[in-house]
Amino acid sequence: MTQKEYIDKNQERFLNELFDWLRIPSVSADSKFAGDVKRAAEYVANKLKIAGADNVSIEETAGHPIVYGDKIIDPALPTVLVYGHYDVQPSVPDNLWDTPPFEPTIRDGKIYARGACDDKGQVYMHVKAFETMMQTDSLTCNVKFMIEGEEEVGSVNLGTFCRNNKEKLACDVILISDTSMIANDTPSLDVGLRGLTYMEVEVTGPSIDLHSGVYGGAVANPANVLCTMIAALHDENRHITIPGFYDDVLELSAEERAAMAKTPFDLEEYKNELKINDVMGEAGYSTIERTGIRPTLDVNGIWGGYTGEGSKTVLPSKASAKISMRLVPNQNWEKIADLFTNYFQQLAPPSVTVKVTRHHGGNPYVTPSDSPAYLAAVAALKESFGKEPVPTRSGGSIPIVALFEDVLGVKSILMGFGLDSDAIHSPNEKFGIFNFLKGIETIPLFFKHYVGG
Ligand code: BES
Ligand code: MN
Ligand code: MN
């Protein structure tokens, strides 16, 4: 039987198995789901075993477990390590979902569920592609799987696991499906990921909430002050004002920018899809450049004072915000965290105190587009889509990818099959059945072109 015949024959079962996995709410951020996270790890470990993997284990960490499995057909052959994550983002706000987040439903050929695209659906393509290669006797090299449960909370324990298991994880290339492609008729390969520095700030004024009439205008209002401080982080050209912030940014050459400008992109369609009247960003750069090659700073959440029903006249004692910065080569996330901390402290007027804390982070990453593995991915996509893939730079981050390079000395191939419109992290996350099956079809072609093609 050919791979294609095997996939066609079994596609309904593949989908049903994915659905069972999606029903497990493996939300890593919320400890109330810790048992479900564990069950999701066990589910995929078992499926790897059934598919034919050896040495399948659930590796405990200080946080959520890591699932490992491998198939070494000949130690002399190259080894591909497949990385992905089985944890998902919280589903809140649940009332905005058309169908419940953990009851996968098919509408218009798409699977709706939290994790459908990010990343359970994409990890499951690899499990089923592996099964397909095993069942059709067509696996051409060694394969290892490492599927973690903490990607959505910064992969805080994965670095330690990698440092402690260098031998076990030894490989020639890492293959990851956790990004998106341009469109179902326009395959693409990510050649870059942005890095991330995630901070939290707290501004404190008076020690207790005060009457805003008795004291307002005479005592610093931390909410007002926080807004002023945040506003000062950008200038009128939307450049970030933190001194030294751009020092290490790798500027692209005119040729590289011209090549990037050829990426298929329709601004009107983009605005319509997002239901926005206009875009906004750093002066002098296109939308694709603003998310692909430029660093950015965003408030992810802001709070303080009275936010309940009706009104309460109060001058809050404290106000806070969560602020992330997306980084590009060659910025370093820890250096940026320090620059941010110093500058933010300096911005504070003497009437308040400011506490700045650092959450997680990771460095940016680039994939060379001339390696044998990259060329194998190009050939695989070309064979399955009938079109040459477009190299793109993703605005998102997978912080562990830069660490893989540092610790394991191995580059990653970012071959994602989702779409930007799949609403990952949002209500009504989805993943096309076309995309799921196309991934299962394309992954074995990557192996074929990488070894023995
Ligand atoms: N799969 C995403 C990253 C991604 C999405 C890359 C779309 C390219 C296109 C990943 O699960 C993710 O959400 N990463 C987080 C970082 C993490 C530390 C929370 C992100 O980018 O915000
Ligand atoms: Mn992901
Ligand atoms: Mn994610």
Keywords:
single chain; 453 residues; alpha/beta; Aminopeptidase; Alpha-Beta Plaits; 2 domains; 4-stranded antiparallel β-sheet; 12 helices; binds ligand BES; binds manganese (II) ion
Write the layout of secondary structure elements.
Layout: H1 3-22, H2 34-51, E1 54-59, E2 66-71, E3 79-85, E4 105-107, E5 110-112, H3 120-135, E6 142-148, H4 158-164, E7 173-176, E8 180-181, E9 188-193, E10 195-204, E11 210-211, H5 222-231, H6 254-260, H7 267-274, H8 287-292, E12 296-304, E13 314-315, E14 318-327, H9 333-347, E15 353-362, E16 365-366, H10 372-385, E17 390-393, H11 400-408, E18 412-414, E19 418-419, E20 430-432, H12 433-450
The protein binds ligand BES and manganese (II) ion (2 copies).
Describe this structure in words.
- The chain has twelve helices and 20 strands.
- It has 453 residues and is an alpha/beta fold.
- It folds into two domains: 3-193 and 364-450, Aminopeptidase; 195-249 and 295-362, 2-Layer Sandwich (Alpha-Beta Plaits), CATH 3.30.70.
- The strands form six sheets. A six-stranded mixed β-sheet has the order 1-2-6-3-7-18, with helices on both faces. A four-stranded antiparallel β-sheet has the order 12-14-10-15.
- It is globular and about 80 Å long.
- The chain binds ligand BES and manganese (II) ion (2 copies).
- Residues 85, 118-119, 151, 178 line the site of one manganese (II) ion.
- One manganese (II) ion binds next to loops.
